[in-house]
Specification:
The chain has eight helices and 16 strands. It has 348 residues and is α+β, with helices and mostly antiparallel strands. It has two domains: 27-208, no CATH class; 237-345, no CATH class. The strands form six sheets. Strands 3-4-6-7-8-9 form a six-stranded antiparallel beta sheet, with no helix packed on it. The chain has a two-stranded antiparallel ribbon with strand order 1-2. A hairpin with a 2-residue loop joins β12 (177-178) and β13. α5 (242-253) packs across α8. The longest helix has 22 residues, at 2-23. The radius of gyration is 21 Å and the shape is globular. It starts with a helix and ends with a helix. The relative contact order is 0.11.
Length: 348
């Protein structure tokens, strides 16, 4: 009994010591990295830090994101059209989450919430999260996670307020692991195949990201752009069919878990954009262990009947025991549900 009590007292101390030791060499402030020049909140990339965007990004409770990549000096990434790019050791992927004060008018400012880093170290990818202070002067390393309240005016002029979750470092694995190995999710050729304004203004400042990366010696072996896959923009009908846009949304929001190598591999559900088997995609597929998350429905997707499909039920819930994705959101995105309902309705 005495030994048990001794260990019960020592274990928390040992855990805190281990956390302190693991984070001792990690910069405490985002500003320590030198990723940005000038005022940190302006997010102006320093030399060697390149902005990028995704055609269809992950939904994160309506947070907007600023994305940047910093490759090690003199190194590039090789083209591949089937998976996320294989970035060299020394790469850092930078993603800042923010909310405009008014989505209708960027001039009214924004509130930066957190900046997440994925750093490719010799032993693999490591995730670090920096939470912005109220003064918006810097972001501090956060290990344990947090929840903050956000308030803003949405695109329809409605004032919205809700909780915003900042993950702890262990939760990052819940989305980024493949066969227990952490990996990036977003920056693939198909997602980067789109235009971005690189400084200046006007039409001449716009350039395809893949072309820019090749011209900047960041990407090798790029074929002609017309031969490169391209993810449509999920909410822009002119970029793709309902099927293509729905599959793109599911690929970025769900397939990082629901694939044969992801954390949800045991579900048998594969929502990757490359999946061609209707059953693996969920069509008339019974869930493995959805519990009350099934909403009483027998199949993941019922062709022609979105409201009898478990997929719609779980995306339309904020109950922690039912909702999907399990991490990264506190709210429902009606716009994507409208697209997915239309996708299921047109299924034969």
């Amino acid at each position: 009994m005495r030994t048990y009590l001794l260990w019960s007292l020592l274990l928390p101390v040992l855990w805190l010591t281990l956390v302190s030791w693991r984070t001792a060499a990690i910069p405490e402030k985002l500003s320590d990295y030198g990723f940005f020049s000038g005022k940190l909140a302006d997010q102006q990339p320093a030399a060697g830090v390149v902005p990028y965007v995704l055609n269809t990004p992950l939904f994160s409770d309506y947070a907007e994101k600023l994305r940047f990549v910093k490759l090690p000096a003199g190194q590039a990434v090789a083209y591949n059209d089937s998976a996320v790019l294989n970035f060299p050791v020394g790469t850092t992927l930078i993603k800042t989450f923010y909310f405009p004060n008014d989505f209708r008018d960027p001039a009214k400012g924004r509130r930066l919430m957190e900046t997440r880093l994925l750093v490719h170290q010799p032993e693999g990818w490591k995730a670090f999260d920096y939470v912005w202070n109220d003064e918006q002067t810097d972001a501090l390393l956060e290990v344990a996670g947090n929840t903050k309240t956000v308030r803003y005016v949405d695109g329809q002029g409605q004032t919205r307020q809700h909780a915003y979750s900042i993950p702890n470092l262990n939760q990052c694995k819940g989305c980024h692991n493949r066969n227990e190995v952490m990996t990036p999710i977003g920056p693939s050729v198909r997602q980067l195949n789109g235009e971005l304004v690189y400084g200046g203004s006007g039409v001449n400042a716009r350039e395809n990201q893949l072309t820019h990366w090749q011209r900047s010696d960041m990407l090798t072996s790029l074929p002609a752009l017309e031969n490169c896959p391209k993810t449509p923009v999920w909410n822009k009908p002119e970029t793709g069919s309902i099927n293509d846009r729905a599959r793109a949304w599911l690929d970025i929001n769900c397939a990082h878990c629901h694939n044969p190598k992801g954390p949800a591999m045991t579900s048998g559900l594969n929502l990757s954009v490359s999946e061609t088997d209707p059953t693996a995609l969920g069509v008339l597929k019974t869930p493995v262990a959805a519990g009350r998350g099934s909403g009483g429905h027998p199949f993941d997707i019922v062709p022609g009947k979105p409201d009898e499909s478990i997929l719609i039920y779980r995306l339309n819930s904020t109950d922690p025991g039912e909702m999907m994705p399990e991490l990264g959101r506190k709210t429902i995105q009606p716009e994507s549900l409208e697209l997915l309902r239309a996708w299921i309705k047109e299924m034969k």
